[in-house]
Amino acid sequence: MQNAIQVKGLQKSYRQLYVLKNVDFEVEKGNIFALLGTNGAGKTTIVKILTTLLKKDGGQVTVNGFDVASKPSNVRQSISLTGQFAAVDEVLTGRENLVMIARLRHLSHPREVTDDLLQRFGLSDAADRRASTYSGGMRRRLDIAMSLIGKPQIIFLDEPTTGLDPEGRIEVWKIIKELAGSGTTVFLTTQYLEEAEQLADRIAILHEGEIIVSGTLAELKKLFPPAKVEYVEKQPTLEDIFLKIINKKEDK
Amino acid sequence: METIKMRNYFFMDMGVMLIRSMRHVFRSLDTIITVTIMPIAMMLLFVYVLGGAIKTGTDKYVNYLLPGILLVAIANSAGYVSYRLFLDKQRGIFERFHSMPIARSAPLWGHMLTSLVSNAISLVVIIFVAFLMGFRSSAGMLSWLAIAGILALFTLTLTWIAAIAGLAAKSVDGAGVIAYPIHFLPLISSAFVPTKSMPAGVKAFAEHQPVTPIVETIRALLYNKPVGNQIWVALAWCITIMFCAYLCAMRVYRKRL
């Protein structure tokens, strides 16, 4: 089966600074792929190259079978990007934001598509309020909803949960799982190991411009010495406590 | 998803962009005050407070003043273009649009079109108020069309200059700075008083900057006077500056985004 994303020998530098030295990875169709790395490791640079926002210096990159350099408009037809900061228009209402994107994707029924997404993302009540009044989690949900319009085959999420509270994070995780369940390929960057562990089918770690390890969670775990059995009293984490208190558990 | 060639959609996409930024204009009280109420207040102030002391050689001061007020209104709107472009750049809106299958320049042209449409609306309102204040013109249809053309050209010129500032700026304040020199151009011109009353140095500046020939051309068109070569000077200024600003803005746009 053809891979959704194929990257070979990708290089990128800003003037003298080599951000990406030699990046190789591939993402299978319908998978959730998590790219892990510290701040400044080059995760966003990779996302920008894959989404045709930035030109690569060297290497082969294909997205949905199209070369990003020679067929950028075919790539743009196949993808959508949710950037690091929720790119919603704050002056417009949630509904207007969605209708705008649906029009730009040239769908024949922008209103129906919008109503459907508002419902699905729990934004129906806030639909006619300006996005500037939304909470961080709502804004991110709207942002992701905007990315789903037109049913792109591949979705890029650049640090989708950075800056969200635990509740918002869990909401976003739920959405990502549903997406992958419906056959969409998800490319995700994150700094949180837990997030990759929760969501990803395959994980790659980017460090100093190269992918130092990649594989499934099970494969990555095998790289390290076998687990030792120790008895440690399990204290609830502050997150557990927080979620318990506000009584909105993960299975909401 | 329908995958018809995207160039067929260029104008449709521009329409979507236009609706979006027109909403920005209409939902910003600040913008409406600066581009419509302020020029009207200025017109009231000059006509009813200062106008009595200004000798222009025309029967009614409002007739003399109106072209300048129109240019002030356009100049006031320029800062908002750079402000909005900067926010689109900073908040990742451009990235979102650029990763979609639409023409890469559509978001930028959307702002240009919005500037033209919103200025047209505010100018019509201002002319209507001037009419209530006693402004009368003997201009025919053709002259009005020529005036509209010159005003549109002036709008585009300032908008492209503002676009450079908005796209290149590193902060909101930086994006807004461009507004100040632009605000001053109509003030140091023949827009409010004839240049012959000014001291030599100021007079030289006022007579050799773009706003004066534009004001004089519009005045001549409004009152059926010979336009002379002022119109060519005005057009040369606008087209030259607009062309340079356009190239520069496009360069920044491609490079930064």
UniProtKB/TrEMBL annotation, chain B:
Keyword vocabulary terms for this entry: Cell membrane, Membrane, Transmembrane, Transmembrane helix, Transport
Keyword Oxidoreductase: no
Residue ranges of domain ABC transmembrane type-2 in the record: 30-256
Highest taxon above the source species: Bacteria
InterPro entries on file: ABC2_TM (IPR013525), ABC2_TM_bact-type (IPR047817), ABC_2_transport (IPR000412), Nod_factor_ABC_transporter (IPR051784)
PROSITE patterns linked to this entry: ABC_TM2
Cell compartment(s), UniProt: Cell membrane; Membrane
Main location: membrane
Transmembrane segments: 29-49, 61-87, 108-135, 141-168, 175-193, 231-253
Coiled-coil regions listed in the entry: none
Membrane topology annotation: Multi-pass membrane protein
Keyword Iron-sulfur: no
Family assignment from sequence similarity: Belongs to the ABC-2 integral membrane protein family.
This protein's name: Transport permease protein
Biological source species: Mucilaginibacter lappiensis
Organism lineage: Bacteria, Pseudomonadati, Bacteroidota, Sphingobacteriia, Sphingobacteriales
